[in-house]
């Protein structure tokens, strides 16, 4: 008698725990939008592999759009294993995604594999706000809206292998948007910090940039902006 009531109680607790998890994963607070500079990614020890469509344009590529929590800045993942990636739902976006959201990983992956991975891991956690189609369309729209490379170039931060004070790219973005971005650097084989990723935050509508509640920042005082 006693044993079965204990196991009933623990089942109840497990059920409550699971339903709490489901609710909390849907209940994200903002998006983290991440762009990557291919010149830095390809200049790391691991190197890069171009997609079968060839060398991408010298522009930032989309790295991710992640629903995130205010409290701890973490991102919920894999929120709906039933919601499979379906290429035909984004057929009108494929051409644009090939250009703006390619995979540069080695060994070379079909871009579809990357989009499917991103949808399953992150996109399913914002399903309450964005359909599969709208998730990818939102990322593409955000990239165009930010127009990051142009913004940096206009203010003299050029991908020309030169070194800059880290404050330079940060204040260019802050002056242009009113928002301080996060920035992640990688090290090239000579030990130089290079601008690898730029993090911006976006409200849950997916259309307005907002100040990130916490900022990624692992760059040294001098950063290189490599050619690509
Ligand atoms: C972060 O916050 C969310 C929402 O409250 C919570 O579900 C999640 O477990 C937290 N993660 C960590 C690592 O604290
Ligand atoms: C993929 O989406 C299309 C268009 O919405 C739909 O007709 C098709 O049944 C879906 N395929 C799968 C495997 O869900």
UniProtKB/TrEMBL annotation:
Keywords from the UniProt entry: Disulfide bond, Endonuclease, Hydrolase, Lyase, Nuclease, Signal
Pfam families associated with the record: Ribonuclease_T2 (PF00445)
Residues in the signal sequence: 1-24
Molecular function in Gene Ontology: hydrolase activity; ribonuclease T2 activity; RNA binding
Keyword flag Magnesium: no
Highest rank taxon of the organism: Eukaryota
Family: Belongs to the RNase T2 family.
UniProt protein name: Uncharacterized protein
Organism per entry: Medicago truncatula (Barrel medic)
Lineage: Eukaryota, Viridiplantae, Streptophyta, Embryophyta, Tracheophyta
């Amino acid at each position: 008698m006693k044993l079965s009531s204990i196991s009933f109680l623990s089942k109840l607790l497990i059920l409550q725990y699971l339903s709490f998890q489901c609710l909390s994963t849907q209940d994200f607070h903002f998006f983290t939008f991440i762009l990557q500079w291919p010149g830095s990614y390809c200049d790391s020890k691991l190197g890069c592999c171009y997609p079968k469509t060839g060398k991408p344009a010298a522009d930032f590529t989309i790295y991710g759009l992640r629903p995130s929590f205010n409290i701890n800045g973490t991102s919920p993942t894999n929120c709906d294993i039933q919601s499979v990636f379906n290429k035909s739902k984004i057929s009108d976006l494929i051409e644009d995604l090939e250009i703006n959201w390619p995979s540069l990983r080695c060994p070379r992956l079909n871009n579809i594999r990357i989009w499917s991975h991103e949808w399953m891991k992150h996109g399913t956690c914002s399903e309450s706000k964005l359909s599969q189609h709208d998730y990818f369309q939102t990322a593409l729209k955000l990239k165009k809206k930010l127009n990051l490379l142009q913004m940096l170039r206009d203010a003299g931060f050029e991908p020309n292998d030169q070194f800059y004070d880290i404050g330079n790219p940060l204040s260019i973005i802050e002056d242009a948007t009113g928002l301080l971005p996060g920035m992640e650097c990688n090290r090239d084989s000579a030990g130089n910090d290079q601008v690898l990723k730029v993090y911006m935050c976006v409200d849950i509508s997916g259309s307005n940039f907002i100040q990130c509640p916490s900022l990624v920042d692992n760059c040294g005082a001098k950063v290189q902006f490599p050619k690509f």
